[in-house]
Give the backbone structure.
Amino acid sequence: MELTQETVVVITGASSGIGAATARRFAREGARVVLAARRAERLAEIAQELRQSGATALAIPTDVTDPEQAHRLIEQTLEHFGRLDVLINNAGRGYVGAVEETTPEMLLRMFAVNAFALWYVTAPALPVMKAQRRGHIIVISSVVGRWGYPYSSAYVAAKHAAVGFVAALRTELVGTGVEASVVCPAAVDTDWGKVTDGGPLGDLYIAGIRRSKAIAAERGLPLAPLSRILSPDDIAEQLVQLVRSPRSDLFTHPGTAELAELAARDRETFEQRMLPFYLGVQQVYAEWRRNAMPE
Ligand SMILES: NC(=O)c1ccc[n+]([C@@H]2O[C@H](COP(=O)([O-])OP(=O)(O)OC[C@H]3O[C@@H](n4cnc5c(N)ncnc54)[C@H](OP(=O)(O)O)[C@@H]3O)[C@@H](O)[C@H]2O)c1
């Protein structure tokens, strides 16, 4: 799809991280952007910043886990701009907890924002995109939508559901002129790992990676193949290119497409390669639990 001043792009989770960077990047391309998230003040500040730089930007405070608010987001976008070309389902949140500690409430919260919201926001956007015979639905899943990471099973499973959502959606979009893509980033330098429910998952993984080096050395194993952290701007740039040249799957970090393929083909070999990381995180998690988790 060509990006012009007519193009309307809705981005959920636009109050920080990847979503905010993506709003800025599409605005720079001249597109009209609609920013959605719960923190109204932050959204308004970003929209104001974009307008000051000459862009057309609209902030619509939205909790995407509420079907009515999700519907209203699309309705207000159409009232305002009369069309909708790109929807980026980016809102998401993680948590820290072993499988046996994951409560029914946490399960619901993780699936509500990372999976159910995809239906709530996408469904009202589809009729207009189909009528336009032009549109692109993008879902930000994660590499953990393709393989497992420890102590976040409900998030991991919900991100797998996001991959399944796009796979199913694509089968209904055949011949409609509407595209759908799933994006699977590895680590990105945002607030995400700090604001996880139940403690900072990012800190757990960083400490686990440090520990994994000693474990790998002790056991004579190669280090787990973890990719370099990218910036939200790196991801935003790739999303602009994805809209220009659509494809079903985007792995943003070098080497992760190959790892996803290995995990799909031979999970045990994949897990062997990750072993120092899994053991490192396991040790650190046990210590955290004994000494109380960091806030
Ligand atoms: N950072 C990583 O390493 C990484 C890796 C792979 C995938 N991802 C995925 O990338 C996406 C963006 O995350 P990020 O890294 O940019 O983290 P972030 O800075 O924490 O951004 C998350 C965004 O989601 C919004 N959000 C959370 N719950 C929401 C709700 N109920 N309704 C509406 N918006 C909601 C937050 O805004 P409010 O709090 O204002 O609502 C925020 O704008 C997420 O789906 C995340 O799972 C991140």
Summary: The first strand starts at residue 8 and ends at 12. Residues 12-13, 15-19, 37-39, 62-65, 90-93, 113, 140, 142, 185, 187-188, 190-192, 195 surround NAP (CB under 6 Å). The mean pLDDT is 96. The chain has one domain: 8-193+228-265.
